Amino acid sequence: MTTETQEPQRRELARPPFYRDVRVIRIVGQALAVLVVIGIVYWLVNNLLSNMDRLGISTSFDFLFGPTNTAIPYHGSFDPRSPVWQMVLIGVKNTFLAAFFGIILATIMGVVVGVSRLSENWLVARLATFYVELFRNIPPLVIIIFFGAAVFTAGPFPIFSESWEFNFPATDNNLLIVNNDRWGIPGFTQTSNLLLFYVVIAIGVIGAIWVWRRRTKNFERTGQPHHRVVWSLGVLLLALIVAYFAAGQPLEISWPVISGNRRRIDGGFIINWGWMSVTIALGLYTASHLGEIIRGSILAVHRGQSEAGNALALSAFQRYRFVILPQATRIALPPTINQYLNLVKNTSLGTAVGFAEITALTKTSVGNGRPAFQSFIIVMGVYLVFSLTISLVLNVVNRRLELETR
Amino acid sequence: MTVVAPAPPRETSLDWVKRNLFRNWWSGLITVILLPLSLYLGYRALRFFFVTGQWDAVRVNLTLFMQGTFPRDEQWRLISQIVIFALAFGIGLGTNSAASHDRADDAGLEIENGSIAGTLARMWSLVAFIALLLFFATTDDVGDFINPFLVVGGAIVAAAIGYQARRLPRRFRNVGWVLTMTFLVIGFQVVSGFDAGGWVPLSIVYGSVAFGAVPVERFDSTWVRLLLRLVALAVVVFAIRAIYAAVDSPGIGWDVWSGLHLTLMVSAIAIVLAFPLGLLLALARRSTLPALRVMATVYIEVIRGVPLITLLFMGQFILGFLLPAGTVLSAVSRAIAVMTLFSAAYMAEIVRGGLQALPRGQTEAGQAMGMAPPTIMRRIILPQALTAVIPAMVGQFIALFKDSSLLSIIAILEFLGVRKIIHAQADFRSIGFAETLVFVAIGYWAFAFAMSRESQRLERRLRVTR
User: ipTM score of the complex?
Assistant: First the structure.
């Protein structure tokens, strides 16, 4: 019986014609798309090669080993005869420095602004709102140029020959030299035995991490306060001291001094105004975005969490530190990654204030007849590496922070 | 016996100060430090604005800031553009308001009418900026041949006339939208000219209207319906082409646009062109076809991974090489091409976010109704996803508007770049650097702030309706 009734249903479904078969359509569609894209790319590359050939422009990367032939502003020790790849490295280093300090500044300012916007103090909340609305609606380039032109080169600071000098208390050493062109702070000079020094420090870092983990485990097992920050920093400091003396005092503090003709700052660590404008401007600009992110994430933590902390008689600070901020961090991290990436990319605007970062240097070098295509491919590669590294690192952190759900 | 709770004591201003400024010792300490500091900084800022600032560099060059090197005797084009755009915005606003009233009526809800004062209050930054411009204009000693007050007044009148579109009966609602588009295109072409390829935008608008509006219901065959629609499309397109060929009046191409005009136009053009590209990229990235997905992902990630300025340099130095020998593109065209390709990648991510946020049930409901995948996409997914991401798109437009300042680095004279000509003048070679920069910052700020306010409002309203 049953087989009889099911018999008609078992018949073969008619195959659709091939032009309506999903499998065929999928393959044909993809093949077509790939063909179109390859065709376009081939056409573009073909044009590029034939045009470059017609104008006699080389397509190789040999220019990297030719001499630079230009001085780099604020890099007096750079020999213009050294190859182009060294110039590229200096650009990468400067981009990194601006991005690194910019991110630190942006993070500090962003947290301050974000928390301030939720403050019970009317004045603090108002000022923070003003800050956010002011900075995030002005193009970063305008802010950078403002710092470069209106603050540092033509602003409140003395012109070069009459720099302000701030002495280290009770000595003749300059702690800070300020003028509109560059600032000098104490730096280090290396003498010898550096390898040993770094090896001992590396051991110290590993030791600090190990102690951190030990203290955490100890805390988890016994519930004793871990004080892991103090412990790790102590280990690190100890390693530094040991390294310093073991390597025979390889570093010396070098104090900044204004040169005899009052045209240079000798010694110390020199911060030029381009670097300063880019760092401060991008730090402040990004902080306005970070502030909004942090405010949003604090608000996104459920009210009950704060009330629960209250019920446990935690102080306001403890509630923030142990209940709200850890949860807010988890929410804030992905958009924060995005802002950091934007900051890294925005350092390229240093071009406008003559900061010797990779884009500005490449622009000059292309202006001096280096092949544009290869040069900018390198620059884009550098930024891609920066971007991908940051995403990668913070994605790992993100995964560690993620709530473990079942 | 009823017990009446005592009314809470009225808060005096002293109570307010105590609660908001001196709630506890650290709050008081912060107030004591910050209050004098902010008062002093505010005093310095006001002093700069009203006393020490040398605003001559801005005042004298106001026209330069607005239109840059745009030919002065063609200024009537810009003025007509402002008025026509105002008309288009008025029609758009009126139609939008009427449409939301329609929806409210359908749902049996009462919605309050927005007031003009309310709109102006929301847009206060723009209003203040225009007032600042008018103030500078009255003291401008260059002498324009058209009174700026007349331009602003004309724009207001045009917007008010356009706003009357909300009185159109409901079945003409779409006419309001089509009129908006038409006037936007015409306003653009008043400057760029009614020649060459100018027929394309209006053909797209009216062609798609014709394609959809042909009465084809009485025919059963799909092929006949499609044929009829195509015929209507072709007729409209040819008609518009013929009109443009008859008019054929050249205008001023965007190669010579500059100043604030160029800034606004470049960001608008780039965002309009980037939208279809970004939509395609987002669909490709969400596609189940691996080849499409990989290519779209690579494009999006590479573009998003590098700064716009390197892409602009690429555009200036390389784009000419990528095209066949002999093709000449102006600097502005290359910049617009680059900004379009750049924002398409960001647009794609925004649209993708909207697509991902949509519950799967929507697709499945479409499948259960036996719809074909393209129909599900067109009728169910995209309308909802695109509506949900409108605020994000406004945000992207603001970002692009701010990014357009980078054009000054590649020697295009947009709002920020105009400063270069100004400070090349003998009078302002070394003075007014900060003043012109602050003026430019105020300009950018006014537009970006107004738009971000508007997008926040949109976001709230969209959240409520869902």
Answer: 0.90
